[in-house]
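Run log, item B.
One chain of 469 residues. Sequence copied directly from the ordering sheet:
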Amino acid sequence: LMSESAPLLGNGSPYQKQSDSSSDGAFPVYTRRWYVLAVLSGIAFMQGFAWNCFGPIAPALKPFLGWSDGTIALLANWGPIAYFFAAVPSSYLMDKKGLRASALFAGFLVFAGAGVKCFTTETRPATILCHVGAFLNALAGPIAMSVGPAISNTWFPLSQRTTATSICSQANVVGVALAFVLGPLMVPDSGDDTLTTAEVHTRSRQFLWYMWIQAIFAAVNLICVFVYFPDKPPIGPTFSSSEKREDFVAGFKRLFTNRDFWIVTACYGAMTGVFSGWSSYLAPNLQQFLPKDTAESESGWIGFYSSLAGSLGGLLIARVADYKGHLKRWLVLFTFVSTLCFLWFALVCIDVLPRSTWSYYLSTILGGFFNNGTIPLFYEISIEVSYPVGEGTVTTLLTTINNLACFIFLFLPDINGLGNQWCNWFLVGSCVFSLLFLSIFKEKYKRTSLDKSYDAHWTEPAAGSVQHT
């Protein structure tokens, strides 16, 4: 048996330490950390799924509930709108009240948001309740998107920290992706603008079952938090995990004068925020180049595969970063390749490169792999350059800028006469912007350096070292 703090992919990490006893200066780790990670990842997954549950079934909902494109858009836009209201309180909750309080708060909001949508399919009350549910779910967004680094710092050793951050942050993305597929399967569109009484009854039943499934899974997550969810381990996995963080207000002030943090934040918003907006606008974008019915179908599948590819990219690069380090190197590489992929897509759209369906698929899936693959790296490097400001404060501000970039992108299509040609080049330009600033950014590992300096036993795990706690 190997120590629980050994690398997930085997021995040999330069970041690995020996920890078979808390009495010899090493730090223990606890098996329950995986349970804590699973529960919070489940909440993040359901929050992302519920946020995206209406868009993919919009063709079925329009004739059924009488909704317009504006209604569908507003249900999605509650995400960034509510984020701005909830960001500061959520940051305070994560940094000052701990993981259990944060999990209870987010888990309850996701459950309440899902639950209120389960009662009726009468147009007016259903519309109101769906907006209320979308807003409640959106209020859980800052914790769902930002809590990963807080979990990894509190429960995981250095050799697993980026991986734990990636699992939780990518769970939200996987939830968004799954809604692209599960929604149309459970609430299929018949293609008719007018529905018979029998079709209305069938679609009503399908819609309510879809809402109930979300509420049931959200309830399971909330019950898990109530039944057993330790706030933190008896002994932290690293020295920095037990160190007192900057006061909440002082931490915010310190971030606003931290140039390195703002370089990372601007690059993160430009990369992933613009890509999120571009992905949600893919159907109108593709309608310029493909038939309308084909564009709607293809955009859903492209969105699904690119989201899954991004989650896979995040998990893979997180393991490599835990094993090899050098976060900036991987960020620059992934940003560069992502830029090339979206440039490929843009050139295909204007016929500079041969146009084909597989070109749209491959360029977007690869772009999603490398773009969303940067998410855990941005989280970790932003915390490194901001230490000792609390993880919740750092990542909430980081993801707020991400939502702001997404909001700006989705606002531009409302400008009369702008058209859609701009959106692909806007994405390419945002990637180039991030690449330029990441290239001149000087990486600093304040938290990691502290952990290393306080561990006199930073060696390969001793053969047979075991710690089951």
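Observations after the first pass:
- The chain has a mean pLDDT of 82.
- The radius of gyration is 23 Å.
Flagged for discussion on Thursday.
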